Amino acid sequence: MSELEELSARALARTFAPLEILRAIEIYHQALGLAPDFALAWTGLASALERALLNAPETQAETRKAMDEAFSRALALDPDGWTNQLSRATQLFARRDWAAAERAYAKAIELAPASEPSVRMRFGAFLMHVGRARESVDLLQAARRAEPLSLEVSVLLQIALECADRRTEAIAEYERSKDLAGDRSMVEYFALKRLWGHEDAARIKQQFIRFLSHESLILPVNQELGKVLDQPAAALPLIRRAFDDPAYQDPIRVGILGEWATNYGDLDLSFAAFRRSMFDLTSTWYTYLWQPFYAAARRDPRFKSLLRDLGLIDYYRSSGKWPDLLRPLGEGDFEVIG
């Protein structure tokens, strides 16, 4: 597998566009047919299959088996290298073994060359998922310095900056990202969420139209929402209908519906959607929990229950590393501070 092929497959796999992820998997399979001992390509294939899990729940068992096989090949080929540790970290993260995943990510950074941005990007994303956005920003900024043209690094950094209450910097990074190549669906969607609670209806409508022009993971309900963006009473029935529609039952789409429900103040639907996404559909995307738009939900008692059920509170207590927005209270409780 040439360096150009590996970079091409990696770029395709870093989107949430289903067709591009499938193309990345195809490139990795073709390359590994020629060079079956290329550990980094096995790691890349496993990561692409991990993304595929989010988009096609109907083939989840088959995809998860292929992903685990790819990780196993990577581990066997490079038992002492950074790709080994990155593969282990990814597997452990998917199983919500938070402490072990953190150790594996840290070890991968220790072993990886400074020129390799993927490790810092993945560890930065992990820290953001567990609510440690301030630490995440440092790693993602390092990844950006190593790979300034990566749209995926840019959008992750934008989310981390927003979660770390550095909104002005997040907006500046969004503006910088407009010159970067790649699937802009995710970056434009997060730019839309950044406006929730901050901008007037006209500005939100303008960004929503921009997002739809780049949408790659299609939610037909978005076309209907575009007509009633500033009318919660009209928007919420559309979201509830989509929540029950079989066409939306994958972790990303259900999670997006939960975000819209949160924006419109329906916390019952919000918690139902996030629980379905995370537990029933095994999502590995947890940044919802720490973003500014979710502040009202964090004050709901169900937020504490959600964190406990995810195993995060045990992880925080055992590690002593609490997220930016939580603070322990004695031995058995904690409070939300943001």
Structure description:
The protein has 19 helices and 2 strands. The chain has a domain at 1-112: Tetratricopeptide repeat domain (Serine Threonine Protein Phosphatase 5, Tetratricopeptide repeat, Alpha Horseshoe), CATH 1.25.40. Strands 1-2 form a two-stranded antiparallel sheet. It has helices at 3-13, 18-34, 39-55, 60-77, 82-94, 98-111, 117-129, 133-146, 151-163, 167-177, 185-195, 201-214, 221-225, 232-243, 251-263, 267-280, 295-298, 301-309, 312-319; strands at 326-329, 333-336. A hairpin with a 3-residue loop joins β1 (326-329) and β2. The protein has 338 residues and is mostly helical. α8 (133-146) runs antiparallel to α9 and α9 (151-163) packs parallel to α11.
What is the percent of helical residues? Answer: 55-70%
Low-confidence stretches: 1-9
Structural class: mainly alpha
Distance between the termini: 47 Å
- What pattern of helices and strands is seen along the backbone? HHHHHHHHHHHHHHHHHHHEE
Which strand order do you get reading across the main beta sheet? Answer: 1-2
The averaged pLDDT comes out at 89
Principal-axis shape: globular
Q: Which percent band covers the strand fraction?
A: under 5%
Annotated CATH homologous superfamily of the domain at 1-112: Tetratricopeptide repeat domain
Number of β-strand runs: 2
CATH topology name of the domain at 1-112: Serine Threonine Protein Phosphatase 5, Tetratricopeptide repeat
Whole-angstrom Rg: 19 Å
Second CATH tier, the architecture of the domain at 1-112 = Alpha Horseshoe
The first-level CATH class of the domain at 1-112 is given as: Mainly Alpha
Strand count, sense and barrel status of the largest sheet are: 2 strands, antiparallel
Q: How many alpha or pi helices?
A: 19
